[in-house]
């Protein structure tokens, strides 16, 4: 990561201007310096070092193209039978083949389990005159108690069934045997649309006896044990897939789904002939890339910095999900904190002194990154956050912290954009189209809540995908609704197969 002098110089000019208008604290303390001389001295003392540290986060277009090429290469290895085992990007078949057509009418129940909150939703899907869809939902959140998360699988699924029973009672629909779609956002190896083996719990779940088992089976058993209602579990999908499907209802070109929140993942419709893990040549199947694991076989070593290594080593899964760790909200705040600590240790920030809180892992939350970057220019927001961490920042400190946040969230957007560009180029090549018109459904807190993430992200994706016309669509109520719609498709497909 070398940067030309002019580049460095331009950046520094901005910083010293901010300094001059801001922290005069240093100047007025030293009567021997004139007001304008000091910032120049400071700039030559501090500037290049801060610059140097932040420059490592700035990726050139050539580097992003390289990330994109490597991503596409790994995707192809994941798709091919002979390389699938060793590929870092697993490209898991989802068995979601066709996307819904405009005729499903009916009620569906949707479950959404992906974190400490569990959601039950009643969805009414109706086709209206213009062959578009009307989707109405009623939903309720239940929080999962600690003992259900960490006890046995039976305890967890009994609790889920209990919530469902409560929901059905409240809406007076316990007597109906509704089709059920299950958004289950953990790593799963699908054997069919309604059969998936849990590979690993993540996000703090530990319930024993679930890993290695069919999740739909566990749910069906729990419903049977209760015996007070019946359900027809037709489909289980990942939140990424659910995002794609739910956006498809608004835009029929939506064939990519992506999540950038606590985690980061993407799926897209791949040509069946390329999905070697599943027999069949016709049509397309949705492939869950599991691209968070990109880099786990060394593909990102030349892009990972010392801070990334510290974050990884302190995580619950060292050496795994390395691409996700460069991007997702779970790690962004901590990366900022590590860079701030580096600057403090080099005596470039907070007078070289960190507060106890700043020294504490996890204290700089990812939402602070958004807040720091949305500061209106008076530094109030930045000042408040830093004081809440026990610091007494100068105005220059505030400006440096803002630059750190900008650089880290920008790297996240650019890295993620390079990955998506890999997917889109893959689609264009596989479809042998000169130009590809495609819509990407997106969900996730980083994408939705960070003030500049999506602009920076869109810009990079478009730069790296010539001959593509890309629309980005934010999913509303993503996962639960997607699962319900997928169960609609599954029912329709089942009905179709019965009549054959
Ligand atoms: C990164 O930090 C530099 C200062 O080192 C700043 O000039 C630049 O604007 C920042 N880049 C981004 C993309 O935020
Ligand atoms: C599903 O989504 C979650 C969150 O995006 C991710 O952690 C998990 O690995 C995904 N995978 C599968 C196959 O369900
Ligand atoms: C996931 O499961 C595999 C085997 O099923 C195991 O080797 C691996 O360590 C697990 N990963 C995590 C993060 O628990």
UniProtKB/TrEMBL annotation:
Cited InterPro entries: ATPase_NBD (IPR043129), Hexokinase (IPR001312), Hexokinase_BS (IPR019807), Hexokinase_C (IPR022673), Hexokinase_N (IPR022672)
GO biological process: glucose metabolic process; glycolytic process; intracellular glucose homeostasis; positive regulation of insulin secretion
Associated pathway: Carbohydrate degradation; glycolysis; D-glyceraldehyde 3-phosphate and glycerone phosphate from D-glucose: step 1/4; Carbohydrate metabolism; hexose metabolism
Compartmental location: Cytoplasm; Mitochondrion; Nucleus
PROSITE patterns: HEXOKINASE_1, HEXOKINASE_2
Known catalytic reactions: a D-hexose + ATP = a D-hexose 6-phosphate + ADP + H(+); D-mannose + ATP = D-mannose 6-phosphate + ADP + H(+); D-fructose + ATP = D-fructose 6-phosphate + ADP + H(+); D-glucose + ATP = D-glucose 6-phosphate + ADP + H(+)
Leader sequence residues: none
E.C. code: 2.7.1.-
Annotated Pfam families: Hexokinase_1, Hexokinase_2
Superkingdom field: Eukaryota
Protein family per UniProt: Belongs to the hexokinase family.
Protein name: Phosphotransferase
Species the sequence originates in: Nothobranchius furzeri (Turquoise killifish)
């Amino acid at each position: 990561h070398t940067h030309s002098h002019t580049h460095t110089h331009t950046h520094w000019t901005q910083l010293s201007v901010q300094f001059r208008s801001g922290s005069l604290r240093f100047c007025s303390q030293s009567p021997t310096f004139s007001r304008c001389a000091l910032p120049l001295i400071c700039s030559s003392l501090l500037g290049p070092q801060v610059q140097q540290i932040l420059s490592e986060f700035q990726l050139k277009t050539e580097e992003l193209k390289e990330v994109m090429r490597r991503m596409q290469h790994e995707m192809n290895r994941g798709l091919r039978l002979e390389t699938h085992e060793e590929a870092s990007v697993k490209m898991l078949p989802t068995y979601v083949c066709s996307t819904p057509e405009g005729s499903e009418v009916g009620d569906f129940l949707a479950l959404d389990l992906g974190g400490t909150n569990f959601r039950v939703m009643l969805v009414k899907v109706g086709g209206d005159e213009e062959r578009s869809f009307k989707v109405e939902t009623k939903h309720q959140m239940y929080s999962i108690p600690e003992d259900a998360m960490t006890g046995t699988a039976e305890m967890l699924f009994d609790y889920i069934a209990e919530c469902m029973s409560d929901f059905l009672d409240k809406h007076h629909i316990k007597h109906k045997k509704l089709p059920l779609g299950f958004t289950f956002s953990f790593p799963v190896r699908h054997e069919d649309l309604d059969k998936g083996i849990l590979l690993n719990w993540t996000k703090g779940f530990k319930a024993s006896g679930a890993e290695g088992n069919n999740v739909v089976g566990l749910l069906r058993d729990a419903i049977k044990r209760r015996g007070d209602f019946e359900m027809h579990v037709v489909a289980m999908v990942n939140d990424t897939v659910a995002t794609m499907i739910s956006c498809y209802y608004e835009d029929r070109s939506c064939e990519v789904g992506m999540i950038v929140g606590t985690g980061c993942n993407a799926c897209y419709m791949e040509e069946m002939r390329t999905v070697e893990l599943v027999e069949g040549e016709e049509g397309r199947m949705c492939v869950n890339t599991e691209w968070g694991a990109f880099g786990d076989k060394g593909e990102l070593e030349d892009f990972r910095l010392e801070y990334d290594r510290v974050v990884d080593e302190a995580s619950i899964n060292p050496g795994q999900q390395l691409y996700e760790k460069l991007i997702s909200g779970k790690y962004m705040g901590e990366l900022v904190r590590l860079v701030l600590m580096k600057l403090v240790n080099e005596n470039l920030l907070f007078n070289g002194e960190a507060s106890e809180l700043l020294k504490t892992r996890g204290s700089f939350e990812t939402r602070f990154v958004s807040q720091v970057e949305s500061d209106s220019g008076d530094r109030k927001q930045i000042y408040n956050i830093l004081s809440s961490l026990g610091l007494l920042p100068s105005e220059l400190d505030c400006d440096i912290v803002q630059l750190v946040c900008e650089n880290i969230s920008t790297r996240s957007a650019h890295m993620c954009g390079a990955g998506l560009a890999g997917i889109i180029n893959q689609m264009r090549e596989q479809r042998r189209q000169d130009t590809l018109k495609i819509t990407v459904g997106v969900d996730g807190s980083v994408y939705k809540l960070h003030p500049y993430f999506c602009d920076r992200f869109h810009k990079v994706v478009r730069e790296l995908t010539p001959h593509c016309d890309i629309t980005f669509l934010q999913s509303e109520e993503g996962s639960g609704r997607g699962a319900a719609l997928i169960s609609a498709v599954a029912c329709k497909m089942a009905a179709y197969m019965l009549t054959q």
